[in-house]
Amino acid sequence: KDWVPSSRFLICLSCRDKSRTASKMKPWQGYAHAAVVALSVWFCRETVFEALQWWHGRPPSDGLLLGSCFFLTGLACVPIVALHFSHVMSAKRCLVLVVATGLLFILMQPPIPLSWTYHSDIIKAARQSADDISIYGFFASKSTWPSWLLIVAILLTLASVTSTIPIKYVVELRTFYAIAIGISLGIYISAEYFLQAAILHVLIVVTMVCASVFVVFTHFPSASSTKLLPWVFALLVALFPVTYLLEGQVRINKTILGDSAVQDMGEEDSKLATLLAVEGARTSLLGLYAAIFMLIALEVKFELASLMREKVVDRGGVRHSHSGQSSSTTTVPPRLRFMQQRKASAVPSFTIKRMAAEGAWMPAVGNVATIMCFAICLILNVNLTGGSNRAIFFLAPILLLLNQDSDFVAGFGDKQRYFPVVVVISSYLVLTTLYSIWENVWHGNAGWGLDVGGPDWFFAVKNLALLILTFPSHILFNRFVWSYTKQAESMPLLTIPLNLPSVLMTDIIKVKILGLLGVIYSLAQYLISRQQYISGLKYI
Predict the structure, then answer these.
(1) d(C-alpha 249, C-alpha 254), whole Å
(2) What transmembrane ranges does the database entry give (predicted)?
(3) Residue 99, by phi and psi: left (phi above 0), alpha (psi -120 to 50) or beta?
(4) Choice between 488 and 70, residue whose per-residue pLDDT is larger
(5) Domain-by-domain residue ranges, the chain?
(6) Rounded Cα–Cα distance for residues 359 and 457 (Å)
(7) Segment 491-520, tens digit of pLDDT
C-alpha cells in the first residue's frame, strides 16, 4: 500500500532528534502529521482488532475498538506536540481531549450504530462467528446507549476545564454548558437506575440541571447569578422530599393497578418485590442527593476560602504599602510581634462581615448543604450497614465544610471548625449506646425486663453508670475545642482514670469506644494546652 512508506517517513520526521535541528513545524505541517497518524491507525484497525481479541479471548465491542483507535492516535501524536508545539496550548488541549475520548470509549464501550461499522472482512467474519453462541449461548444484553450521555458530559467538563470552551468569559455559553451537563447527567441517571419510574425522569433531570447551574455559576458568577442562585438551591432542596416520596408512591400504585410483569407472581411475592424495589430506588436517590449536596458544599467552601484569601492579600498589600520603609529599618519587639500575629488571625472573621456585598447567602447555603449531606449519609448508614459504629468517624469530617455564619451558630468561626466533628461523634455514640441499652431491656409486648436484681436490670444499671463515667472527658474536650482557652493541666489528666472502667468492664462496644476516645481526648487536650503554654513563653 502506498500510504505505508509516506506515513513512516512523516512520523520519523516528526520524532527526529531535537538536538539536530532547532526548527519547529508549521501549523499546517502539524495538521498533516496528525492526519497521517490518524489514517495510519485507521488502516491498522484490523491489527488492533486482532490484538484486542487475543487479549480478551473474544471479539472486542465496537466501542472498545474505536476507543483504542482514538487512544493510539493520541499517543502517537504526543511526540509531535511535545517537540514542535509545546508552546501551543490549543495543541495540548486537543491532545488531552483525544486521549480522554479514547479512554472513555474503552471504559464505557458505548454502542456504535451500524452505519459506523468498520469495513473489514476480518472484523465482519469475527462478528458473524457462531463460536460465541455455541460456547456462551444467547444472553440478553443491557442497553448501553446512556453511556453516550455520560461521555458527552465528561468531555464537556474536560473541555471547559482546559478552556477549550470559553465558558469563563461568555455568559450565554456558560448557561448552555450548565444546562447541557445537567440534561445529559439527568437522562443518564434516569435511564440507568430508574427505568421503572418514568414519571420521575423529569424530576431527576430538573434536579441535575439545578445542581449543574448552581455549581457552574457559583464558580463563574455573572451579574445576576448572585440573586438567582439562592432560589435555584431552594428548588433543589424542595425537589428532594418530593422525588423521594413520589418514587415509592409510583411503584406502589403501579403494583395495585396491576403490572404485566407482576401478574404472574403471587400476591405476597409481588408485594415483597415492590417493597424491595422501592427501598433500593430510594436508597439510590439518597445517594444521588448526598453527592449533589456534597458537591455544592465543597464548591461554596472553595469559593469562600478563595474570597477570604484574596481579601487578606489585598489588606496585607495595603498595610504593607502604608508601612513604607520604616518597617524594614526597625526591629519589632517580641510583645508587639505577638500582638501583630493576633491581629492577623482576626482578619478572616472581619472579611466575612464584608462579604454581604458579594453574596451573603453563600455561607448559609453551604451550611444547609453540608447538614443535609451529613443527615442523608447517616440515613444511608442505617439502611446499608444497620448503623455501623465505625461509619461515624468517616461521616463526621463532612461537617468540616460548615462555614462561619452568625445566623447559623453565634460565635462559630474558623477557630471552632473542629467542634462539630467532635461533638457529633460523642453525641452519636452516646445516643446509639442508649438505644442499645433500651433494645436489650425491652422485650416487646412482654414489657420491660427491669425487675430489681434481675439480669436486665443489672445490665442496664452497669452500662449506664459506665457510660456516665465517660462524660467528663468528652465535655472538657468539647469545651476546649470550642474555645481553646487554657485550663488547669491537671483536669484532663484527672479524667483519664474515669474512662478505664468503661473500657474494661462494659458489655457494649460503643461504651468501650467512648472510653477509649475519652482517654485520647484527655491526652490530646493536655498536649495541646502544654504546647500553647510553651509557645506563649516565647513572647514573654
Answers:
(1) 8
(2) 28-43, 63-82, 94-112, 148-167, 174-191, 197-216, 228-246, 284-302, 360-382, 388-406, 418-437, 457-477
(3) alpha
(4) 70
(5) 413-539
(6) 56
(7) 878 888 888 888 888 888 888 999 999 899
